[in-house]
């Protein structure tokens, strides 16, 4: 099977796209052509790194209010590269309409990562008066996609967005068999740095813990948060590593005191699981999280982390100090979390269903 994978928004090294789904396809013996904004993110093309059966082509990124040019380019690139492929796998709602009515396409799959309508309230580039129209457009995109494409859902919570049933491929993670014990010097966050994901709260946690526990942030910051994160880094309140490929980022998680997930109470987050929490468990550290799913459930079921209130950096800082000062607690939480991830949230299990589903849909 030869799969055309397309994103016009995500970093080419996005964990779900590059390091889970594409890797799973390659391990199953399939070929992948990957259209993504390599140049925009300063990422090398996979063929230049000698990766077998994976060929990349750089396209422009759709960002901010200037998106139409990038979407036209993506449409042309799909029209060029799709013929002869067995299936197209796209990862952005923007692409649903961008590739609409293209002729001679193989079966097209939209991998639904988020509640598209709910995210409209989180777009800093979208003026507030335009957001109701954005929500209506998102609902239209979902209806159109359901009528014309196959859908894969990244979370059970997205089922209610659609009229019909669609397969769910959970956003789980690779789980190492062995991990080191958690340390007591630093906490980490891995992911995109936005206001809704708790960046301001994590910066404040860094200020509260300065000289006690180091707060390390790993990921790109959006335009709104970038000056704040840079200032906090410059003043020594946090260590900002910037974007790192998923493998290297998760290696930094290992041996830390805890992982952070301080997401806000937003509609999009109520329907989806914070994969970050699962990743922290998989790499052998407890977590400190606001009460967005799955944190409350995992705290009750596995006692693998601590839930703190929304918009309360002091409570998060206190939880971190509690874990720092109680080695037995943090090691026990880490062990419980890792065991749970190994058995219940392991991409090695979920990847089989993902590959088999694409194989069933391919022409």
From TrEMBL:
Gene3D superfamilies: Glycogen Phosphorylase B (3.40.50.2000)
Official protein name in the record: Glycosyl transferase
Domain of life: Bacteria
Domain Glycosyl transferase family residues, every copy: 181-337
Any Pfam family matching the protein: Glycos_transf_1
Enzyme class, UniProt record, top EC level: transferase
Keyword hit for Glycosyltransferase: yes
Record PANTHER family: GLYCOSYLTRANSFERASE
InterPro entries according to UniProt: Glyco_trans_1
Gene Ontology MF: a single term: glycosyltransferase activity
EC numbers: 2.4.-.-
Keyword Transferase: yes
Annotated keywords: Glycosyltransferase, Transferase
